[in-house]
Design brief:
The complex is a heterodimer of chains A (304) and B (256). Chain A has 304 residues and is mainly alpha-helical. In chain A, 71% of the residues lie in helices and 7% in strands. A two-stranded antiparallel sheet of chain A has the order 1-2. In chain A, strands 3-4 form a two-stranded antiparallel ribbon. In chain B, a hairpin with a 2-residue loop joins strand 5 and strand 6. At the A-B interface, strand 1, helix 3, helix 5, helix 8 and helix 9 of A face strand 5, strand 6, helix 6, helix 7 and helix 8 of B.
Amino acid sequence: MQIYLPIAEVSVNAFLLLGLGGIVGVLSGMFGVGGGFLMTPLLFFIGIPPAVAVATEANQIVASSFSGVLAHLKRKTVDLKMGTVLLIGGLVGAALGVVVFNYLKSQGQVDLLVKLCYVVFLGIIGSLMFIESLNAIRKTKSGKPPPRKKHNWIHGLPFKMRFRVSGLYISVIPPLLVGVSVGVLAAIMGVGGGFIMVPAMIYLLGMPTKVVVGTSLFQIIFVTAFTTLLHATTNYTVDIVLAVLLLVGGVIGAQIGTRIGVKMKAEQLRILLALLVLVVCGKLALDLLLQPSELYSIGASGGH
Amino acid sequence: MKSALFSLVFSILCMAMTAAAAEEVVLGLSKDRISITTNFDGSEILIFGAVKREDAIPDGPPVEVIVTVAGPSMPITVRRKEKRLGIWVNIDAVEVDRAPSFYAVHTSGPLNEVLKDIEDLRHKISVPRAIRSVGAPDNIQDSMSFTEALIRIRENSEIYQLREGSVTVDEQTLFRTAVRLPAALTEGDYATRIFLTRGGDVVSSFETSIDVEKVGLERWLFELSRQQPLIYGLMSLAIAIFAGWAASAVFRFIKA
């Protein structure tokens, strides 16, 4: 069944979108990530204009993270204070990101920037996760306990604040910076930034793993909601029909994925996720490195 | 007898000279309005008609028919990638002042046979003539290749189509063709022109328009997103929040 998307002005198969939403939903349920980093490139592949894909994906992430954070609030695994600090940084970052996005759009370089961001970040995160989970598997085989966290340079910074739920007493500067960088990425890449936020919270801020996902989801809701509004009011690129189709599939897929995830070992899951991230990264990198079959591209004129 | 012969020759001459005015197009469209609904999947328009004459069919080359359908024109930018620092980046750009968002040319024979170049220039019939490009910045020498690329890309995706011989003409009087409009269609008035040619000269033309517009939900959402972007954005968020809440509520219910 073909559906005409009013903002993207293309006609796509509704079942294809539901299916894509479902598959990405299954993966996001299995691995505990938003799935934006997979969905946005997939939308590029099926011919949704990049600007529309990025803005609409932000709207879809609002839905999936809101659904997730409700579950975490019930289990009291959300550090609201830390979430608020991250959020302040995140909103600043998102505003910066949209400004950068609009500037590059007028220069015709927005596709390049979005793709470069994806290649760089997916490459780094994918390789780190791959190495880390390989090491984890090796360690569990040899039976050694994982090493304990140490104090690092982050604990020497000023403006300290107590985060009760996370059991931390650290400076507000690192969480603010993490918030800003994730906000910029959210605006440019159309992702929630969970796949960057979660490792940053664990390894940089030293937060306990059980509150990380909930807190990350909490602040992602607000950052992506803000991004959606900015894109809707400045670029008119949020396609509500596309968003609804994706989130219906995504929400159902996520629940199935969660059930599959429970039956697998954490290290196996992470290795699979790492491989998936690297495959997406490789595909996008090849597009940039190999000579395209068509060197020319058509874009709307600056003035519109 | 002599005067009778003279008058016959004279009348034939007159007919040849007034042939342009003597043949007119009577046109029919299978529909003059296309509504883009949610399940819009492209559309086919049947364009048919007849050549109206007061007198008998003139001698000489047969009448040929050219049908063009043009979507609303808008300025666009064509960009070219070049390899910089190992990756392919957009470098040069050329502004094209007017390029139709859709353009179809259907003819009853090879275009260069049914239409003289001078007539093409006057009526802007062929695809390259329908695009207006004023000029490229000084640093770009080969601005022609940008317009060629524009035509190539749009022809590959069937947005621009040249269908030679797709108009059937019966008895030099009745003609018909079917124009396929793609699913990714923009709104606006689609100017539809019919040209009758003899020996490459345009002897008569006719113009009408097909109205393409979004209707219903599509129309409402599009207008809202342009005129009330803040409300549209908030509505998108409200739907997302509701869907997120509904999903968690439904699955709590299933688990319980």
